[in-house]
Design a protein that fits this description.
3-stranded mixed β-sheet; 2 domains; Four Helix Bundle (Hemerythrin (Met), subunit A); alpha+beta; Immunoglobulin-like; 6-stranded antiparallel β-sheet; 326 residues; single chain; 41% helix; 12 strands
Length: 326
């Protein structure tokens, strides 16, 4: 290990009176390797009463950084103060590296003077084989800028969708509650009344009035007569109507054919004909309801009569085995 300590004498003149300042630097060891700790010493000799401020650490532009705490010692010799600062440093690149220590500030009677530490460096040798001694470190990678996503519009859209979902749920719940306990005939009559309240005929929507009235009749028939499925076409209904006598089939097929032309062929309908189709749809619903009620009443009477006959047969003497034995 080679030790050296070289003093560079610089004369700094103050504004009030001349004062001699001696400054010296040293590096131990003078040659190091990457990551190895070394000590850089800065020694300043100034007259008594002079304040000395050393740099705290290397600047960020140097390829040398602090590797430990720094130690300062001050001593007085013959009217002078010797201030010594020892820095524990480490280099992270090879070659002659500047230590990056700023100038020493000397304060005398409130006046600051600068003692520059120019040329304060250390040599860092490579530990690689000779053929790779000229290795150069890779340059700094550019800063990766992350994409900032503005979540506020998405949150607003999600809140709107959630609100719409709640409104739809509340409406469907209210509708189920409003129709709970009503018969199919009562629901049909309520829908007929709602369509009349819209005053479609008076506003010129005669075709829509006829189509809506027939739609209510079809919904009622699909609910009460299993043969008349709502998904069936008019021709399929014509075939199914031959198997039931509760529905006036010819009249139903007639208004269905007319409304099919209104819906699919875009034909026009007069006010009188639209009103007649709506009245016919009402009559078909009422007549079907009456026929189904009569059929249900007849079925109940037949069931009651059969139950009475069975009860009477169970009470007759001919069906009592003990009476036959006697």
């Amino acid at each position: 290990m080679i030790w050296f300590f070289s003093f560079v004498i610089a004369l700094l003149q103050a504004a009030s009176s001349p004062a001699q300042v001696q400054l010296g630097t040293s590096v131990r060891p003078d040659t190091t390797t990457v990551g190895q700790h070394f000590i850089a010493t800065v020694r300043v000799r100034v007259p008594l009463g002079t304040d000395v401020k050393f740099p705290l650490r290397p600047d960020t532009g140097a390829r040398v950084d602090s590797a430990g705490s720094f130690v300062r010692t001050d001593s007085t010799i013959g009217g002078f103060t010797e201030a010594t600062m020892n820095y524990v440093l480490a280099a992270w690149d090879t070659g002659s590296q500047r230590l990056g220590l700023d100038s020493v500030v000397i304060v005398t009677d409130g006046t600051e003077r600068i003692a520059a530490l120019n040329g304060f460096s250390v040599y860092v040798r490579s530990v690689l084989p000779l053929d790779t001694a000229l290795r150069k470190p890779k340059p700094f990678r550019p800063i990766v800028a992350g994409t900032v996503i503005n979540w506020i519009p998405w949150l607003i859209a999600a809140a709107i969708l959630a609100l719409l979902g709640l409104l739809v749920y509340a409406w469907r719940r209210w509708r189920r509650k409003a129709t709970r306990g009503l018969t199919a005939l009562q629901l049909a009559q309520r829908e007929f009344a709602r369509i009349d309240a819209e005053r479609l005929v008076e506003s010129g929507e005669t075709e829509r009035y006829a189509v809506e009235m027939v739609r209510v009749a079809r919904a009622y028939l699909a609910t009460t007569v299993p043969l008349l499925a709502r998904s069936a076409t008019t021709r399929e209904l014509a075939v199914a109507l031959h198997r039931t006598s509760a529905v006036p089939g010819d009249r139903l097929i007639s208004i269905l054919d007319e409304t099919d032309l209104l819906k699919f062929a875009r034909e026009r309908s007069s006010v009188e004909r639209a009103v007649a189709i709506g009245a016919e749809a009402r009559r078909i619903v009422n007549e079907t309801a009456a026929a189904l009620a009569a059929a249900n009443a007849a079925a109940r009477e037949a069931a009651n009569a059969a139950a009475d006959r069975a009860a009477a047969a169970s009470r007759s003497p001919a069906s009592n085995p003990k009476a036959d034995a006697a």
